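Hi L.,

You mentioned the student needs an example of a multi-chain input paired with its predicted structure. This one should do, with 708 residues in total across all chains.
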Amino acid sequence: MPKLDSTILVPVDISAPEEFDKELLELFGPMRVVLLGYYPVPDQSAPEQLRDEFEEEAAEALERLADDFDKDTDVETVLVFTRDRDKTVERVGQEHDTDAVLTGGEVDTVQKVLVPIRGDPNLDNIAEFVGALMQETDATVTLLHVAGDEEEESTGEYILRGVSDRLKEDGVDPERVCWEQTKGGSPENEITDFAKGYDVLVIGETEPSLRKKIFGDVPTKVVRATDMPVLIVRGDA
Amino acid sequence: MPETTESELERTLGLKEALMIGVGTMVGAGIFVLPGPAAEAAGPAAALAFVLAGAVALLTAFSTSELATAMPQAGGPYHFINSGLGPLFGSIAGLGNWLGLAFATAFYAVGFGSYVVLLLEPAVSVPSVALGPLVLDDSQVGGLAVVVAFVGINYLSTSSTGSLQNVIVLTLLGILAAFVAFGAFQTDISTLRPFAPEGVETILPTTALVFVSYLGFAQISTVAGEIKKPSRNLPIAIVGSVLLVTVIYAVAMVVLLGVVERDVVAGDETAIAEGAAVVFGAVGAGVVGVGLMTFGGLLATASSANASVLSASRISYAMGRDGLVVEWLGAVHRRFKTPHRSIVLTGTLIVVFVVLGTVENLARAGSVMHLVVYGLLNVALIVFREADVVYNPDYRVPLYPYVPAAGAVLSFALIAYMERIEILLAVGLVVGSVAWYLVYVRSRVHDTSALAVLRNPQAVESEVELDDDEK
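Structure written out for the whole complex:
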């Protein structure tokens, strides 16, 4: 059995809080969630000033959002006044030892999960996390590998088999797991195109530093290009 | 379910970012605008004036480092003086810091205008504008444009411009390094003689003029709470940025006057571009040199102006928090989260200063206000050390009490070398602040400063207890 104590970091802009989709929250089941309310501080104001003026309001909004989670979910709230969202997400993610970060996007139903995979060392973390996620829902998962050329295509097949076997070992019904391969094009375009038929994306970060990714590796570009929820699985820091 | 949520403030600035804030604010004015006026006043000895001004700033930089590690809160120099010397001196410091930054911004803006004129010169001429009895010259028109633009941008808020700032500062340092590297081989020692053609007595007034080039280091202390590992990074960034820009200014000044005759650049606000034309002209790239320097001048003055508008607008929050002005003034805009009223008021003042001032008297006005503040800051440090109050800086100035004592004395002394109008301005600041204190502050604020404790420990203790009881 996979461990069920996976921790997900859920950052929200608490200066303009939006309600979560119920469907998405159910996905988390008995996982641990760190709900990070970040309050963006513009260059013109001192962070202390915004805390003075908005702390109470922000804390209330954050606690209201926390109440929306499933009763089984263990929610911890963190409120941070910050000039740099990405640095805060990275720091809080590390300090609370979270396994994945949820980023924006809307969802109606969570039926189909897409997991783009590369041959990186993060693979174990992704497989474990997807395994845990599958325990909570009856959604189906599609593993996707985008190859650059023929050679990569055969490595890709090997990796995909490995991950889907791993999921079966973790007790996920084989009926619910399938895999796809595509070739050519830029990975981010392929993934974004493919993702159109899915509800949620689970993607691995390529390096431990999430912040570095913000300026344009594959996961980041995908996050920017889609308006669906993306769970970014952290690497081993 | 969570019970209560504790909030945190993110520390986002490392050593590099902190250094960039200091260097970015300083490097603009000093070398892109003042070499011409400074050379006119003192000749090659202007290089020495830059070094002397840097030395005075360095003493205060040590004191600022200690105070910033002791109380890393919004407000910077104003806050140190207010908690060290009480609301009377706090009023002088807050108003002085604020007006000083507004004057400095006006100075940067007019400098920016000069570079706009240089850029457009052959093709388009920026019109002079007559406003009733006032005539605005072309660089003032350019300056007003940039002030209005920055006030607008800052009203609407910006975020994460730090990485842009880094790129700007590194670009400027690169341009100056190229100028110095090429220029060093062409320097003709004979043009550096006589060293002080107008007499050695011109050196100190020139020091007073160029002091405005060193105002950036204190900006680092206003973001002390956002700096990682402050006990290490604050002193390195504050002291390091002063040392770095002092060297850059002095070397660039020597190279400039080593490659062009003093008469050519005297009084010219874009003198360094003249220098670049000669330096890069020697390798057949004079146009490139002028282009680079013009670009650098625009970038440098604009980034200094913007940084100063930002800092000036933030002071009103700190003063409001301490009860020295109405909190309404510094309150943030509901949507933009910027201290919009303070920004508009600051912007209005800057516009007035641009209209009424010239480059040189704006520079001196910016300097004189800050010298008052820096003098008081050094005194505040000594009072903190001597009074029986909780004061635990992670960094301590070397050679106490000599460094802060010298910092205070020299900062105040440099005021004497200003022109009469700026000396009157300093007096006006003190008189105006005292009046404000008597009218508004005194009845509202309990003095619990280190100075009050030093004078009468029991009285302050009992007042603090009273305050607690009231709550």
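You could point out the following to them. The longest helix of chain A spans residues 47-67. The domain at 7-102 of chain A is CATH 3.40.50.620 (Rossmann fold).

Best wishes,
N.
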